[in-house]
Protein backbone atom coordinates (compact mmCIF):
# COMPACT_ATOMS: atom_id res chain seq x y z
CA UNK A 1 0.00 0.00 0.00
CA UNK A 2 2.86 2.41 0.79
CA UNK A 3 4.39 1.90 -2.63
CA UNK A 4 1.11 2.34 -4.49
CA UNK A 5 0.12 5.47 -2.60
CA UNK A 6 3.60 6.92 -3.08
CA UNK A 7 3.31 6.34 -6.82
CA UNK A 8 -0.08 8.07 -6.88
CA UNK A 9 1.32 11.08 -5.02
CA UNK A 10 4.07 11.37 -7.63
CA UNK A 11 1.51 11.02 -10.45
CA UNK A 12 -0.63 13.78 -8.94
CA UNK A 13 2.35 16.09 -8.77
CA UNK A 14 3.72 15.31 -12.23
CA UNK A 15 0.30 15.46 -13.90
CA UNK A 16 -1.16 18.36 -11.88
CA UNK A 17 -1.45 20.62 -14.93
CA UNK A 18 -2.88 17.88 -17.18
CA UNK A 19 -6.60 18.66 -17.44
CA UNK A 20 -7.47 15.20 -18.79
CA UNK A 21 -5.82 13.54 -15.78
CA UNK A 22 -7.68 15.85 -13.40
CA UNK A 23 -10.96 14.92 -15.10
CA UNK A 24 -10.57 11.16 -14.89
CA UNK A 25 -7.96 10.86 -12.10
CA UNK A 26 -7.15 7.14 -12.00
CA UNK A 27 -10.21 5.93 -13.86
CA UNK A 28 -10.04 5.32 -17.56
CA UNK A 29 -7.88 3.50 -20.06
CA UNK A 30 -5.47 6.32 -20.89
CA UNK A 31 -2.30 4.55 -21.97
CA UNK A 32 0.19 7.24 -20.94
CA UNK A 33 -1.14 7.21 -17.37
CA UNK A 34 -0.94 3.43 -17.27
CA UNK A 35 2.64 3.55 -18.58
CA UNK A 36 3.66 6.16 -16.01
CA UNK A 37 2.10 4.23 -13.15
CA UNK A 38 2.86 0.65 -14.13
CA UNK A 39 5.98 0.73 -16.26
CA UNK A 40 7.84 3.65 -14.69
CA UNK A 41 6.68 4.22 -11.12
CA UNK A 42 5.91 0.53 -10.62
CA UNK A 43 9.56 -0.33 -11.19
CA UNK A 44 10.98 2.22 -8.76
CA UNK A 45 11.88 0.95 -5.29
CA UNK A 46 9.66 2.27 -2.51
CA UNK A 47 12.52 4.13 -0.82
CA UNK A 48 13.25 6.00 -4.04
CA UNK A 49 9.59 6.98 -4.40
CA UNK A 50 9.68 8.51 -0.91
CA UNK A 51 12.83 10.47 -1.74
CA UNK A 52 11.13 11.78 -4.91
CA UNK A 53 8.08 12.86 -2.89
CA UNK A 54 10.32 14.72 -0.44
CA UNK A 55 11.65 16.82 -3.33
CA UNK A 56 8.29 18.50 -3.90
CA UNK A 57 6.41 18.01 -0.63
CA UNK A 58 7.20 18.32 3.04
CA UNK A 59 6.85 14.88 4.61
CA UNK A 60 6.70 14.96 8.42
CA UNK A 61 9.73 13.32 9.99
CA UNK A 62 7.57 10.86 11.93
CA UNK A 63 5.85 9.71 8.72
CA UNK A 64 9.15 9.39 6.88
CA UNK A 65 10.72 7.38 9.70
CA UNK A 66 7.66 5.15 10.02
CA UNK A 67 7.63 4.42 6.29
CA UNK A 68 11.35 3.59 6.46
CA UNK A 69 10.71 1.20 9.38
CA UNK A 70 7.77 -0.39 7.55
CA UNK A 71 9.91 -0.99 4.48
CA UNK A 72 12.77 -2.41 6.56
CA UNK A 73 10.41 -4.88 8.24
CA UNK A 74 8.87 -5.79 4.89
CA UNK A 75 12.35 -6.54 3.57
CA UNK A 76 13.07 -8.84 6.50
CA UNK A 77 9.81 -10.76 6.17
CA UNK A 78 10.05 -10.92 2.37
CA UNK A 79 13.53 -12.42 2.31
CA UNK A 80 13.47 -15.05 5.04
CA UNK A 81 11.67 -18.35 4.96
CA UNK A 82 11.84 -18.80 8.75
CA UNK A 83 12.54 -16.40 11.56
CA UNK A 84 16.03 -17.31 12.70
CA UNK A 85 16.86 -16.92 16.37
CA UNK A 86 19.90 -14.87 15.28
CA UNK A 87 17.67 -12.41 13.43
CA UNK A 88 15.46 -11.54 16.38
CA UNK A 89 17.28 -8.21 16.79
CA UNK A 90 16.27 -7.26 13.23
CA UNK A 91 12.63 -7.61 14.24
CA UNK A 92 12.85 -4.61 16.53
CA UNK A 93 10.47 -1.71 16.23
CA UNK A 94 11.14 1.31 18.45
CA UNK A 95 12.99 -0.85 20.94
CA UNK A 96 10.38 -3.63 21.01
CA UNK A 97 10.15 -6.89 19.14
CA UNK A 98 7.59 -6.45 16.36
CA UNK A 99 6.13 -9.85 17.22
CA UNK A 100 5.33 -8.77 20.80
CA UNK A 101 1.96 -7.20 21.65
CA UNK A 102 3.57 -3.90 22.56
CA UNK A 103 5.80 -3.79 19.49
CA UNK A 104 2.98 -4.69 17.14
CA UNK A 105 0.63 -2.14 18.76
CA UNK A 106 3.23 0.60 18.20
CA UNK A 107 3.67 -0.52 14.60
CA UNK A 108 -0.08 -0.51 13.93
CA UNK A 109 -0.49 2.98 15.41
CA UNK A 110 2.46 4.44 13.51
CA UNK A 111 1.60 2.74 10.25
CA UNK A 112 -1.95 4.06 10.51
CA UNK A 113 -0.63 7.62 10.80
CA UNK A 114 1.69 7.09 7.83
CA UNK A 115 -1.07 5.55 5.70
CA UNK A 116 -3.43 8.42 6.58
CA UNK A 117 -0.83 10.93 5.39
CA UNK A 118 -0.23 9.01 2.15
CA UNK A 119 -3.95 8.54 1.45
CA UNK A 120 -4.65 12.23 1.99
CA UNK A 121 -1.87 13.35 -0.35
CA UNK A 122 -2.52 10.70 -2.99
CA UNK A 123 -6.04 12.14 -3.46
CA UNK A 124 -7.48 8.65 -4.02
CA UNK A 125 -10.57 9.50 -2.00
CA UNK A 126 -11.25 12.72 -3.91
CA UNK A 127 -13.61 12.55 -6.88
CA UNK A 128 -12.25 13.49 -10.29
CA UNK A 129 -12.80 17.11 -11.30
CA UNK A 130 -14.70 16.39 -14.48
CA UNK A 131 -15.30 19.95 -15.59
CA UNK A 132 -16.85 18.87 -18.86
CA UNK A 133 -19.51 16.76 -17.16
CA UNK A 134 -20.17 19.55 -14.63
CA UNK A 135 -20.73 22.04 -17.43
CA UNK A 136 -23.08 19.58 -19.17
CA UNK A 137 -25.09 19.20 -15.95
CA UNK A 138 -25.30 22.98 -15.52
CA UNK A 139 -26.24 23.45 -19.17
CA UNK A 140 -28.91 20.75 -18.90
CA UNK A 141 -30.35 22.25 -15.69
CA UNK A 142 -30.67 25.67 -17.37
CA UNK A 143 -32.53 24.10 -20.30
CA UNK A 144 -35.17 22.59 -17.99
Please give a quick description of this structure:
Helix content is 65%, strand content 3%.
Structure description:
It is a single chain. The protein has 144 residues and is an all-alpha fold. It has one domain. The chain has seven helices and two strands; from the N terminus they run αααααββαα. Strands 1-2 form a two-stranded antiparallel sheet. Helix 1 packs parallel to helix 6 (101-122) and helix 5 (61-78) packs across helix 6. Mean pLDDT is 77; it is low at 131-143.
Write the layout of secondary structure elements.
Layout: H1 2-14, H2 19-24, H3 31-40, H4 46-56, H5 61-78, E1 92-93, E2 96-97, H6 101-122, H7 131-143
Antiparallel strand pairs: 1-2
Helix pairs in contact: 1-4, 1-6, 5-6
Counting DSSP E segments of at least 2 residues, the number of strands comes to 2
String of helices and strands: HHHHHEEHH
Whole-number tally of structural domains: 1
Distance between the termini: 46 Å
Q: What value does the average pLDDT take?
A: 77
Uncertain runs are 131-143
Number of helices: 7
Measured by DSSP, the beta-strand proportion falls in under 5%
Shape, principal axes of CA atoms: elongated
Q: Considering DSSP H and I runs of 4 or more, what fraction of the residues is helical?
A: 55-70%
Strand order of the largest sheet: 1-2
Summarize the biggest pleated sheet. Answer: 2 strands, antiparallel
Report the structural category: mainly alpha
Gyration radius from CA atoms, angstroms: 20 Å
